[in-house]
Amino acid sequence: MGYLSTLLRMVSEGDICGCNYYSFGLTNGFLAILLVLLMRSGYVYDRFLINKIRLWQKLNVIKNLMVQGIHEGIEGFKGITNFR
To answer: Is the pTM of this model over 0.70?
Structure first.
């Protein structure tokens, strides 16, 4: 039942977006062109940049773990040297 409601919602929202785009195109051609360019830039982002962003995210996590390990090592060394 969840699939059916999701499908119906996608179809209805798609119809609403299509009608809005059509009405914008009739009233203002410049706005319609702007919307097409905006949709294409979203496609370019999704197609080409999302993989690089995911790679950068993994590298950031690895670097954070490395800094955390160094910090814990220094704190452990300080604990050993200050032991009385």
So the answer is: no
Res 2 pLDDT > 80: no
Q: CA 78 to CA 60: how far, in whole Å?
A: 27
CA-CA distance, 65 to 80, in Å (whole number)?
A: 22
∠ CA 81-83-84 to the nearest 5 degrees?
A: 125
| The pair of three-digit structure tokens given for residue 11, joined into one six-digit string | 């179809």
Closest by CA position to 36, among listed 50, 24, 47: 24
**What pLDDT sits at residue 84?**
58
Do residues 24 and 32 lie in contact, with contact meaning Cβ atoms separated by under 8 Å?
Answer: yes
